[in-house]
Amino acid sequence: MMAGNQKKNMFGGFGVAAQQRKEQQQQLEAAVTGQTVAGAASGQARKRGTGATTITLAISGEDKARFKAWAATHGTTMSDMLHDWIVGNCSG
């Protein structure tokens, strides 16, 4: 075989895409279970400070899953997203 005629992997970038998808799945699972992802930065800076409290929201299971998945894939939390919304929309 000539040097210029080396066989190329027929799957191209499949390995990279598969690894990215695996990492994304780990982030989603960690968000749902509350566990940390190995290799990820541990502990996220919290914007809520001391004296944080909880609230109860009535939303559909589908909306909750969508919200939680979006937050996980964007490296944030549902609480931090809500905090950002409150700061940006409820001042005054």
How would you characterize this protein structure?
By secondary structure, the chain is mainly alpha-helical. Helix content is 49%, strand content 0%. It is built from 3 helices and no strands. α1 packs across α2 (61-73). The termini are far apart.
Topology:
Elements: H1 14-33, H2 61-73, H3 78-89
Helix pairs in contact: 1-2
Give the percentage of residues in beta strands.
Answer: under 5%
pLDDT below 50 for ≥5 consecutive residues: which ranges? none
Which structural class fits the helix and strand makeup?
mainly alpha
Q: Secondary-structure element sequence?
A: HHH
Inertia-based shape? elongated
Report the average pLDDT across residues: 76
Q: How many distinct beta strands?
A: 0
Q: Helix share of residues? A: 40-55%
Rg on CA atoms, Å:
20 Å
Q: Distance between the terminal alpha carbons, to the nearest Å?
A: 74 Å
Number of helical runs? 3
The biggest beta sheet is recorded as:
none
In short:
With 92 residues, this protein is mainly alpha-helical. It contains 3 helices and no strands. Helix 1 packs across helix 2.
